[in-house]
Amino acid sequence: MSRLHTVQASIEDIARHFLAEAPAGLSVPRDTIEGCPGIVVIEREGRRYLRNYSWGFPRPDRARAERGDPPEPLGLVANVTSPMWHRIVADPRYRCLIVLTHFANPDGLPGEKTRTWFSIQGQPIVAWAGVCRNTPEFGPVYAGLTRDENGAIRPTNDRMPVILMPPEYDEWLHGSAEQIIRYQFGPPIAPERMVVDRTDERWRSDGLPSRPDPQIPML
Length: 219
Description:
This protein has helices at 11-18, 62-67, 86-90, 169-174, 177-185, and strands spanning 5-6, 20-21, 37-44, 47-55, 57-58, 73-74, 76-77, 95-100, 102-107, 114-120, 126-135, 139-148, 159-161, 163-164, 194-202.
């Protein structure tokens, strides 16, 4: 699972899609890698809000701590039942919807890898199942759940984000721990629903998807 995603949509479109409130001054990052800001949807007392949080929880590392080095960001949740994650994921207070339109994987031979972008057909704005928390080290942060890949992703990676459709938003934000586990270990989204955009942009460049989908209302 790569560590790069982007939001090719306006704050107004995002707020409309998620029926969420956006504070003044909220920004849409050009793209997001671990340690940098992204956009998430949180819910408090029945109301949804857009927020800029940093991507990546502080990664536990005793050696770095003993040297006095800051922790590295950990942005992916590979197993919600692991000791690091199960208490956070089981508590609905810490769940969020990570906003994206595309995510990317490196594609090609070592030293020549390019960016291949993935999006969902008919779903211009996508929710990635996430968790979030306020941390002493980084402030408010988020991380996204991953799962086994589908056929569209397989040539570039063996993991992919846990993508949520609009009817699943409420269950993710409020569901039981058993329901959350099902999202990670159930079948992935069908590969034929995915749009694959292979580009000539080098992986370590700053290229964005070449054909961002137009925004359409989904709710």
